[in-house]
Automatic annotation (TrEMBL):
<feature type="transmembrane region" description="Helical">
    <location>
        <begin position="9"/>
        <end position="30"/>
    </location>
</feature>
<keyword id="KW-0472">Membrane</keyword>
<dbReference type="GO" id="GO:0005886">
    <property type="term" value="C:plasma membrane"/>
</dbReference>
<feature type="transmembrane region" description="Helical">
    <location>
        <begin position="288"/>
        <end position="314"/>
    </location>
</feature>
<dbReference type="Pfam" id="PF00528">
    <property type="entry name" value="BPD_transp_1"/>
</dbReference>
<feature type="transmembrane region" description="Helical">
    <location>
        <begin position="132"/>
        <end position="156"/>
    </location>
</feature>
<keyword id="KW-0813">Transport</keyword>
<protein>
    <submittedName>
        <fullName>ABC transporter permease</fullName>
    </submittedName>
</protein>
<feature type="transmembrane region" description="Helical">
    <location>
        <begin position="243"/>
        <end position="268"/>
    </location>
</feature>
<feature type="domain" description="ABC transmembrane type-1">
    <location>
        <begin position="96"/>
        <end position="307"/>
    </location>
</feature>
<feature type="transmembrane region" description="Helical">
    <location>
        <begin position="188"/>
        <end position="207"/>
    </location>
</feature>
<dbReference type="InterPro" id="IPR045621">
    <property type="entry name" value="BPD_transp_1_N"/>
</dbReference>
<dbReference type="Pfam" id="PF19300">
    <property type="entry name" value="BPD_transp_1_N"/>
</dbReference>
<feature type="transmembrane region" description="Helical">
    <location>
        <begin position="100"/>
        <end position="120"/>
    </location>
</feature>
<comment type="similarity">
    <text>Belongs to the binding-protein-dependent transport system permease family.</text>
</comment>
<keyword id="KW-0812">Transmembrane</keyword>
<keyword id="KW-1003">Cell membrane</keyword>
Amino acid sequence: MLKYTLRRLLGMIPMLLLISIVVFSLAMFMPGDPLGGEIDPTNSDPEYIEEMREKLGYNDPIHVQYWTWVTNFVQGDFGKSTQYKVQVSELVKSRMLNTLFLGISSIVITYIFAFAMGMTAGRKAYSKLDHFIGGLNYFGLAVPNYIAGVVIIYFFSFKLGWIPFGGSHEIGLQPGTLEYWISRFHHVLAPAIVLGALSTASYTQFLRNDIIESSRKDFVRTARAKGTSESKIYNSHILRNSVIPLITFLGFDIVTIVNGAVITEAIFTYPGIGTLFLNSVNNRDYSVLMTLTMFFSLLVLIGNLVADLLYGIVDPRIRID
């Protein structure tokens, strides 16, 4: 497995190089001027703008600009944000913690609901309870996360006042205190439910169908013939086999959560990298935009690798060389 992991990691290098070329090209072809966020908006002197363009290297040939950017990127220099006037590394780091907190919370919600409803629907197949859970799942699959977010904000924030509709914590709280963490959980609850509960639907149906299929196999009939209790059959035999494919989805969840957070964070005005990404697009903050796009691409590659490794870990029958 170590050789396989190293081989996959080395294979990411040319892939990331190709992605960097695409990302840089798309940024250069975007309409607008990156200097719009760097210079003083009140100063529109053409000579001053041209001086800044020369200073920042925007007059250099495209291949020179790309080489400068990619070499700095590899060395950990992601440039300076034209909107926030700080280094991109510091900006992304400050927002990353919020997105990780949101992502972990939503994953926990996803798997708790998926295991509970999937096991119940699988054991009570074709019953009224199974049909009710299936109806909830299909409703969750049909509702986009931005619609669910708007509805939750409208009813639970504006009408009932149960949850906040923006930010990651109350202003003025001391970080690390109990009140601070309670406020953090309070603010992340709604976006985490939107991300996690809607993702639960597909996992629940997958687990339910796999449990039904496994319950009809020979080893289950043999266990019943030996007098094994139904609870032990489902918990020790069926669930152990059915949960294997579900666990491997954890690698893809890393990517899905970040991608979904782009829209969800914007709806709830949650200060994470999703909101930062949309702001960088709107304000043509190319340094932040290219850094986050490369980060998302790296997450996709890592997520695929984690999924493959988990497959080999949870299922000993699969050999990864």
